Amino acid sequence: MGLLDKFKKGLNVTRTRLSRSIQSAFRNNKEWTEDDYEELEQALIECDLGVQYTMQLMDDIRNRYQQGLIKTADDIIKVVQDDVHQMMATDAKPMKWRSDGPCIILMVGVNGCGKTTTTGKLGYKLKQEGKTVMFAACDTFRAAATEQLQLWGERVGCDVIAGKHGSDPSAVAFDACKAAVSRNVDVLLIDTAGRQHTKVGLMNELEKLHKSINKACPGAPH
Fold first, then answer.
1. Rounded distance, CA 22 to CA 61, Å?
2. What is the enclosing helix (H) or strand (E) of 127?
3. Cβ atoms of 137 and 190 closer than 8 Å
4. What is the pLDDT of residues 107-130, one digit of tens each?
5. What is the pLDDT of residues 171-214, one digit of tens each?
């Protein structure tokens, strides 16, 4: 199964899960109660639509239900589809690419939020758009983190700059920036270790990483 097929399969799983959750939350009552709304709201959040977007969506669903426009679970699914389509159509903005060097993107976040996977998928998307992409494996502490990114590099067709396990991530980032410039790539995606904002040492490491990138390529990360 190719990378695109796996991505489509993941979307299909989410779509099926969302449909089942809505079907489960919807009841053919004469009038919805607040408990029904809360159950539907929870179902939407559990399908990873995000809290802020779910709140907006629930307002739309409430208004349409009160107007008699929602009578079945399929009506709710149609509302979700329409709203997601409208959101993506209105919020999508073309990326402004640099003409004087690589666009350097630093991937940061808490542990387990999917930075490495997102790096791979973003790299794939950019390659599909005709960009040359390079990865930097700056999570040098998590077991097999570098190998995971290298696997993504093989799948997507991107070079990966990496150091030894336990090496200084700032040094790896610096080398990656220099390599991106010398190889004239369009985009450098720098994968980093997960960190909580309460961990002072890890936040200081992130600051050092930022300075190292900026030293190699003034103005970066972008």
1. 12
2. helix 115-128
3. no
4. 998 888 889 999 999 999 999 999
5. 999 999 999 999 999 999 999 988 888 888 889 999 999 999 99
The order of strands in the sheet holding 187-192 is 103-107, 187-192, 133-138, 159-162
Which residue matches tokens 């079945």?
Answer: 72
CA distance 89 to 123: 22
Measured between alpha carbons, how far is 133 from 120 in angstroms, rounded to an integer? 10
Percent helix / strand / coil, the chain, rounded to 5: 60, 10, 35
Residue that has been written with the tokens 């449909």 in this structure: 19
The number of residues making up the chain comes to 222
- Residue 212: name the closest of 195, 186, 192, 197 by CA: 192
Q: How far apart are CA 66 and CA 60, in angstroms?
A: 10
Domain chopping of the chain, boundaries: 8-91, 103-216
Q: Could you tell me the pTM of the whole model? A: 0.65
Q: Which of 187, 72, 193, 65 is nearest to 128 (CA)?
A: 187
Number of Cβ within a 10 Å radius of residue 57: 21
> Dihedrals φ, ψ of 157, to 5°?
95, 40
Q: Is 179 left (phi over 0), alpha (psi -120 to 50) or beta?
A: alpha
Q: Helices 145-156 and 115-128, interaxial angle, to 10°?
A: 20
For residues 19 and 37, give the distance between their C-alpha atoms in angstroms, rounded to a whole number.
16
Q: Which CATH class is domain 103-216?
A: alpha beta
Evaluate whether the domain defined by 8-91 bears CATH number 3.40.50.2300. no
